[in-house]
């Protein structure tokens, strides 16, 4: 099938334009006449660069775009529109080409008899296991609009949590990178100018100045190798995490033990676990299936292992609290609140309260981290550059004394 651009006249004489997917031009004309339109022009839609070169096609769908799609879809379902019509409208109006392709492919699968959840499952990069399983639960229970609204709320809060963590990580990395770049620039470009000037004056350089000059010589000789080593280390670390489960497990465990960032990552993990499990239980997903999905979306192998161990214990007839109490990941307060939720039969409500509490904890932790790192970064940057500048001006002071 191909896409055709058409123009047609209405019975009132006005002109309409659009595009349509069909086998050939005759099929487009037949469909237009069936809609009471008189076709005046039908031709193949010009191909985009992305159609000619598929590798240029964007495959990234942002969480915010997925939230908007989910919200709009829920509203349409609640208004009583058929599923295929909802997908057609949302697909044609999507701004992101990647999301548009996915929605129209999902629509095509649904038209061919697949369930909505089965159609979504064919696109795991856009719709993860959590999304697919909640939609499946909504289809079975006849509450798809409620599930979609719940999903949209979950995605919004999860995206906010991820943005907070990224913000906490980006700030120190940016400051350190800028600091190192400035220091390297001074040592490689500025210090040699001072060195040449001092050589013209003659005499022996002060100790601090000579040390900075020697560091400049060393850096000029090895800066290329250092850049290659740094890039190789980053790429090698990423590849090792992808290919070696044991290495990934060890690094995940190390991250949770870091002095400041470890506590932040632990709070983020608890908030994500609580929010995800609460959403799935409230949507009617069985607890064992929910725990398996939550474990796979934990983002940390240590936490994933603890959750899978909890799932195995529940399948043997134990409560959720028993294995969680033995875990070193979840704080005692969280375990106690889950226990109260189990006994009261209000697990999803209690988990939601835990998630809200830890969202606030993450907010506070990010604020404290930023407040602590900011003066440290400024002291490092100011101290490094100040030391270099003082070392360079020492010979000038000596020359001034000699002239005096």
- At CATH level 2, the architecture of the largest domain is Up-down Bundle
CATH superfamily membership of the largest domain: Type II secretion system (T2SS), domain F
- How far is the N terminus from the C terminus? 90 Å
Helix percent reads: over 70%
Mean pLDDT metric: 83
Give the tally of structural domains: 3
CATH topology-level name of the largest domain: Receptor-associated Protein
**Radius of gyration based on Cα positions:** 31 Å
CATH class of the largest domain: Mainly Alpha
SS-derived structural category: mainly alpha
Structural notes for this entry:
The protein has 404 residues and is mainly alpha-helical. The chain has 3 domains: 2-46, Ubiquitin-like (UB roll) (Roll); 57-156, Type II secretion system (T2SS), domain F (Receptor-associated Protein, Up-down Bundle); 163-404, Receptor-associated Protein (Up-down Bundle), CATH 1.20.81.30. It is built from 16 helices and 3 strands. The chain has helices at residues 25-34, 49-52, 63-78, 83-93, 97-111, 116-121, 129-141, 144-201, 207-243, 245-256, 261-282, 287-296, 301-315, 321-326, 332-344, 347-403; strands at 2-9, 15-22, 38-44. The protein has a 3-stranded antiparallel sheet with strand order 2-1-3, with helices on one face. A hairpin with a 5-residue loop joins strand 1 and strand 2 (15-22). The longest helix is centred in the middle third of the chain and has 58 residues, at 144-201. It is flat. The protein starts with a strand and ends with a helix. The model is unreliable at 52-58 (pLDDT under 50).
